[in-house]
Amino acid sequence: MTVRIEQYGMFSTVLVPTDDSAGADATIGHAIKLGDTYGAAVHALYVVDTGSGPIDLSNDERASVRERSEGHGREATIRVTDRAEEHGIDAAREVREGVPYREILSYVADNDVDIVVMGTHGRTGADRVRLGSTTERVITRADVPVLSVRRPEDGEPTPAAAVSYDRIVVPTDGSDHAERAAETALDLAEKYDAEIYAVYVVDPTTYDLEDAPRSIIGLLEEGGRNATEAIAELARDRGLDVQTNVRRGLPAEVLLGYASTVDADLVAMGTRGRAVGSGRLLGSTTARVVRRSTVPVLTVS
């Protein structure tokens, strides 16, 4: 699978699916930032979920509920396009009916969308952050990058002027998925003159490091150095500042801590999906990072 990158601009169409919640506005600033930087159009999409709601409604009641939902959808999409047009960005909007993730993916295909900007739902307690089922399904099935933005608890929208991508963490495990994510991250970094932080995590739960010979540990860490240095070379070729790091620990925990340590503005990583029947699975490390990250996460399939 290839990542679509235009010769003169990585993104020409940005899609913002919205659900009319106050927290959804957190994604708009990021979409406008990308639209302004790349000269890209911003599209807003609201999906009236025909599979949700009470099942014991009369036909008239169903029609009334659907009409109200469509009204909310129009208001939500207008809010996105108005903000985009205030920044001189071309904008479009649409309200559809159906299963949300399917309609989002259909819209991506129908309109040659280059990136989807979606929100994740913050949650306290043992679950920390739960990734919405629609967002997760889009991430795992989309053939274009997806930028997941944590929705603030206070629901306050993030202005485009406050959005920055100056420090980008790029996790790698040397896989093709990680390489594709790194290429996308480097294109983004070049546009924003960002610093790249390439990191590799040796997972002790996969390799029993307590009992492993030192030579094995050395080989694993050498592989990590090679993987991060490969990204560093590509970054230097683009004139970007880059740092590399090899660490040990539980990958998601280490990556989240590392992103916090370097004050990252963005984490860019592969989904590491694998085919299962007609769908895909989101890699456990990627899922945990997207669920818990306080900074946006760019996932590339």
From TrEMBL:
Pfam family, one: Usp
Secretion signal, residue range per the UniProt entry: none
Gene3D superfamilies: HUPs (3.40.50.620)
Entries under InterPro entries matching the protein: Rossmann-like_a/b/a_fold, Universal_stress_UspA, UspA
Domain UspA, residue spans: 10-150, 165-300
Family: Belongs to the universal stress protein A family.
Protein name: UspA domain-containing protein
Record organism: Natronorubrum tibetense GA33
